[in-house]
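lol ok so funny story. i was supposed to be doing the assay writeup but got distracted and ended up predicting the structure for this chain instead. priorities right. anyway since i did it might as well share w the group, maybe its usefull for someone
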Amino acid sequence: MALSGQASRYRARRTCRRASGGPIGGWAGRLSSYAADQRGLTLVELLIIVAIIATLATIALLWYGDVTDQAKLARAVADISTVGGDIDTFEMTHDRLPNDLAEVGRASLRDPWGNPYVYLNFSTTPAGQRRKDHNLVPLNSEYDLYSKGRDGQSQPPLTAAVSRDDIVRANDGNYVGLASRY
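and the output, tada:
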């Protein structure tokens, strides 16, 4: 059956062809035909795509921030444990505690937030500067060693708002971690 001239041109334009020249049949032909009729994305479709990308980027940034905070906390805990071991070795070798971190070779050591670690030798430090827990009992018996945390501020009682993010050594080294978890 022959098609009229206008119908045959329409049919020729809508028929997709294989590389060999034959028409593509079935669902692949319909999909190719549909794709050929489309001219682009609408504004609504573009806005939906942008909203999805923005949501995924926000989730990724929040996750990344949480991971980096945990890594910094782990590094500070490891540093405090290492320096605490250095201080204990110094005490066994010299029969006294060091006066400052320079005596154990750690004067230039900085916490992950760029602040120096704080060391307080109780034999040379007034009792009012000692770190205290929520019952106002000193955390340690011989010396304090801690990081001021992300905000770079600290006060002797751990219950102070600025001390909640500090990384502390407590119970004479049996606990090293966030002050808020102690």
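The chain has a mean pLDDT of 84. The domain at 43-181 is CATH 3.30.700.10 (Glycoprotein, Type 4 Pilin).
back to the writeup now i swear
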